[in-house]
Amino acid sequence: MSLLFSFLNVDTFAQISTADSIKYSNQILRIEQQLLDAIPSGDTIVWGKYLDRNYFISTEDGTTYNKKEFLTTFGPLPKGYSGYIHIINPHLIFREKTAILHYVSDEYEWVLGQKIHTAYSTMNVYYPVDTSWKILGGQVFEIPQLPPATDVSKEILNTYAGTYSLADTITCKIIMENEKLYIQKKNRNKEELFPETNNIFFRKSDTRGRKIFVKNQEGRMLMLERRNGQDVVWKRNF
User: Fold this and answer.
1) Which among 220, 184, 221 has a CA at the least distance from the CA of 199?
2) Non-local CB neighbours of 209 within 8 Å, separated by 6+ positions
3) At a CB cut-off of 8 Å and minimum separation 6, what does 138 contact?
4) Strand partners, 226
5) Residue 48 backbone zone (phi > 0: left; psi -120 to 50: alpha; other: beta)
6) CA-to-CA distance for 135 and 172, rounded, in angstroms?
7) Which CATH architecture best describes the domain 154-236?
8) DSSP 8-class letter at 150
9) How far apart are CA 103 and CA 87, in angstroms?
10) What are the boundaries of each domain within the chain?
11) What is d(CA 85, CA 18) in angstroms, rounded to the nearest whole number?
12) How high is the pLDDT of residue 21?
């Protein structure tokens, strides 16, 4: 892997020269790309080589693994699946005998001909061993992405319009305007709600949250503000 140093932000400590920091940065990034290249085939040999025996990682779904546990999660992609992962936006910090690498794992996958693109925020902690490096620990988080908006009829959108209350003094408005739906809370500008389905909406300013419109058993319209599987319930005023 070639390294364009202009894309790399390196913070060095006094004992490391600029030339050495570039050298070490290239070494670490080459190792990291080797590890990413080994994922589609499920190759654990290269991973076992560079992981410290006390290695610990927290993955994108919050699961934690030690080295042995982590290596058991590897396996080749199923038949009809293919893909690759590239490093983008790398940043390295050297402190004492430690190097911290943060970058975006830019993943492209083809599932029976259908293309999927996912990005992960990745951080690994390296330390030098002889002429190479080992990884002591890491964290990976999936970077949320918004889905494409779907088309919903103005008749359906209009059924959600109204004033909703969280408490007597806390309200928000769902506004139907020019065949689009908007939300406006007190002292805030209105924001467009984009339909993911007929009753699930998202805002472009919030990749994780959703507004879900449902009726309770009494037929009253509710707006569920959902994040991480938990809901804050707003009730539409009669």
Assistant:
1) 221
2) 202, 203, 225, 226, 227
3) 55, 57, 58, 122, 123, 124, 125
4) 210, 231
5) alpha
6) 49
7) Beta Barrel (2.40)
8) -
9) 7
10) 5-142, 154-236
11) 29
12) 84
* Nearest-angstrom CA–CA distance, 109 and 83: 4
Fold adopted by 5-142: Nuclear Transport Factor 2; Chain: A, (3.10.450)
What's the token pair of residue 145?
């992405």
Please write the tens of the pLDDT for every residue from 139-153. 999 999 999 999 999
Strand ranges across the sheet with 114-129: 9-11, 81-95, 98-111, 114-129, 132-142, 51-58, 64-66
Looking at residue 186, its pLDDT comes to: 84
For residue 180, which of 204, 144, 206 has the smallest C-alpha distance?
A: 204
- pLDDT of 37 > 70? The answer is yes
Degrees to nearest 5, angle at CA 11 with 106 and 25: 55
